[in-house]
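Worked example 3 (structure in, sequence out).
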């Protein structure tokens, strides 16, 4: 009998398959099928089909119920990637398949079907004599068409249905497909400088190899990407451009689209399921050879990839933050190997891991040390302590206020980065001095003025009610701390003639909100743009000549092995937004830690010195890139259960080459107590093998495994 092994979305199964009869069905690897699992109808993914004797099974096999797809939804390469991810991230394969495929194709019981367009098609048999003049015209016009939408048919002849009744046309359905948009303006091609030309020629396109393009902000990395892409497209191969969170870098899409015209595929998180599916099909059918997208675009079904570019490769968004917690870098390496094509990682401040690999010769280092306009912004570090002592405001020092004033006079624009949203960031009971906390998390509440609510920034908790004290009366609350809302209000008050925009998570919840705010800023509808770190990335607006970074110290204070690196990146990236045009730019960093090396090296644009010093600390503490980390978090609503789970895991864990840190309780989130173990070792393969072996033996609920975590917060 013919049988098939299928994967089903059930965590208890992990990577085990179930077997079904498929004698009466046309089914093959990569199809989705409906099956019955313990009385429930579920969608499954076919792993293999083969002949087997029914005696080989100890139980009676059930037949599959029906087949969903007539072709494989995944190719061999992407299936292998899913298998790799499953092992590497300790996640069931079915979950990885769901990540690799767009929602509409996911082997998932609640997956929705692709949208269909209804239309008609000529089937012949028209007897001219029986037709009216209009009907004859209709037949004449549309008989060569493979597909005429109902809308078009109706517009030409409202009585078109009579031709279906006569059996001359039939009604058909086909998948809705992407409508190409017209792009009129072209993004001009710049000729390369001598330095750029040298870098351009260093890349070889006929083998799998990784290049790290370390170029200061404004050094012309994008132009190089575009010219490499142009070269690859001429060879009739495809190009994949990855950017961090796309809404923050609409320019990249704009530039690529304008350079290469309307064929560019776009793939990012704010597309809806149908839009993603249409883009996916375009790549699969070879209708587009160039895709610009975020993390998940790494799974596009290219058949002939010639180049992968990862811009701003240091950005945390390249690591997925829920399961499977995969690193885009790893997948990009696999695809580069499979397609024998180069992978180019670009950044002004590469991840220490990437730069270390380049120094060791695993990657080829390409450098662009100069800005195209040859001037770096003037950087001024202002001591907030000093300012407070002089009785200025600690929020905005005199230096920063004067600098803003002069920009406003000259009709130039200003960016202010404050990495805290909300209005007041700390609230206390005036009597007891107790901080108001989220009831579900060990996190303090923030006050948001525009909707007059108290919010937790970790979970969805919010309330308009002031908490009550033991006397059942509303507490007298005093607030402190400045978030972006309060900064905006302060600026509007201080500079009544200036228009102040704000970009943070609260103003960007709606689709395309990022783009609207940035376009308004680019068109100078705002003089000042206030925002969290999201405005520090990738913006290129020539009229911005001042960038102010407020309160950089909070980031430095985080007890995470990467927080110094992140602070360095934030300053470097934010200062890169200033003075990109003809005018001289200025950057003002307000800090209590004027002499901190991350701040000093960032303002002087000394990546290499920063790298050297930070690597010494990493070496001392044996943090990446000197070791590998795996973070395992156990969570449960019950505190002692949480701890017990971690103990159970550790019971199976005994390898003297792997250091175990913890278990230790970390912040409670969303009502769940959490305990974390960190594994540290030099051999990632061995660490993974041990984790799998322990994980296989225990109850898997409430466990989150993060291999090579970007943060331990
Ligand atoms: Zn909360």
């Amino acid at each position: 009998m013919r049988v098939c092994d299928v994967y089903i979305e059930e965590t208890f199964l992990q990577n085990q398959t179930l077997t079904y009869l498929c004698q009466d069905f046309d089914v093959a690897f990569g199809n989705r099928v409906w099956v019955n699992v313990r009385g429930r109808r579920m969608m499954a993914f076919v792993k293999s089909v083969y002949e087997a004797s029914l005696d080989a099974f100890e139980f009676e096999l059930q037949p599959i119920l029906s087949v969903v797809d007539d072709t494989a939804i995944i190719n061999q390469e992407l299936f292998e990637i899913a298998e790799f991810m499953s092992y590497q991230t300790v996640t069931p394969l079915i979950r990885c398949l769901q990540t690799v495929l767009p929602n509409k194709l996911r082997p998932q019981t609640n997956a929705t079907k692709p949208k269909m367009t209804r239309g008609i098609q000529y089937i012949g048999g028209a007897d001219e004599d029986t037709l009216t003049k209009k009907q004859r015209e209709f037949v004449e016009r549309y008989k060569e068409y493979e597909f005429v939408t109902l809308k078009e048919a109706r517009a030409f002849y409202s009585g078109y249905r009579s031709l279906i009744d006569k059996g001359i046309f039939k009604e058909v359905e086909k998948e809705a497909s992407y409508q190409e948009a017209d792009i009129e303006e072209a993004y001009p091609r710049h000729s390369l400088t001598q330095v750029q030309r040298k870098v351009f020629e260093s890349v070889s396109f006929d083998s799998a190899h990784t290049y790290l393009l370390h170029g200061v902000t404004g050094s012309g990395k994008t132009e190089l990407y575009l010219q490499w892409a142009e070269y690859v497209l001429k060879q009739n191969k495809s190009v994949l451009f990855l950017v961090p969170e796309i809404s923050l870098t609409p320019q990249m899409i704009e530039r690529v689209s304008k350079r290469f015209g309307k064929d560019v595929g776009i793939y990012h998180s704010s597309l809806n399921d149908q839009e993603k599916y249409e883009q996916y099909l375009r790549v699969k059918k070879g209708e587009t050879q160039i895709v610009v997208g975020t993390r998940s675009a790494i799974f596009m079904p290219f058949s002939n990839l010639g180049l992968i570019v990862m811009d701003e490769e240091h950005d945390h968004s390249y690591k997925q933050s829920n399961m499977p917690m995969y690193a885009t870098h790893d997948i990009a390496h696999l695809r580069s190997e499979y397609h024998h094509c180069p992978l180019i990682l670009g950044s002004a401040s590469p991840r220490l891991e990437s730069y270390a690999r380049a120094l060791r010769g695993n990657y080829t280092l390409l450098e662009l040390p100069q800005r195209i306009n040859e001037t770096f912004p003037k950087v001024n570090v202002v001591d907030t302590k000093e300012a407070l002592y002089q009785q200025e405001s600690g929020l905005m020092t005199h230096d920063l206020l004067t600098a803003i004033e002069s920009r406003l006079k000259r009709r130039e624009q200003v960016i202010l980065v404050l990495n805290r949203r909300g209005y007041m960031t700390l609230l206390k009971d005036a009597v007891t001095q107790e901080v108001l906390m989220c009831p579900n998390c060990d996190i303090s509440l923030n006050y948001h003025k525009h909707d007059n609510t108290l919010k937790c920034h970790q979970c969805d908790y919010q309330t308009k009610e002031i908490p009550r004290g033991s006397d059942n009366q509303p507490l007298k609350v005093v607030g402190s701390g400045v978030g972006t809302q309060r900064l905006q209000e302060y600026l509007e008050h201080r500079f009544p003639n200036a228009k102040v925009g704000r970009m943070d998570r609260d103003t960007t919840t709606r689709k395309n909100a990022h783009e609207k705010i940035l376009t308004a800023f680019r068109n100078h509808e705002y003089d000042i743009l206030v925002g969290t770190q999201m405005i520090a990335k990738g913006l290129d607006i020539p009229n911005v000549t001042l960038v102010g970074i407020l309160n950089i110290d909070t980031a430095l204070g985080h007890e995470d092995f990467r927080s110094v690196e992140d602070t360095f990146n934030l300053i470097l990236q934010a200062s890169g937004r200033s003075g990109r045009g003809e005018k001289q730019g200025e950057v003002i960093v307000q800090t209590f830690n004027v002499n901190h090396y991350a701040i000093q090296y960032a303002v002087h644009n000394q990546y290499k010195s920063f790298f050297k010093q930070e690597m010494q600390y990493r070496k001392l503490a044996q943090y990446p890139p000197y070791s590998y980390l795996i973070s395992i978090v156990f969570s449960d609503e019950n505190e002692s259960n949480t701890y017990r789970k971690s103990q159970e895991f550790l019971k199976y864990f005994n390898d003297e080459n792997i250091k175990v840190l913890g278990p230790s309780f970390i912040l409670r989130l969303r009502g769940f107590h959490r305990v974390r173990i960190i594994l540290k070792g030099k051999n990632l393969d061995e660490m993974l093998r041990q984790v799998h072996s322990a994980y296989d033996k225990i109850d898997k609920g409430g466990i989150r495994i993060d291999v090579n975590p970007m943060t331990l917060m």
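Notes: The two ends are 54 Å apart (CA to CA). The chain has a mean pLDDT of 89.
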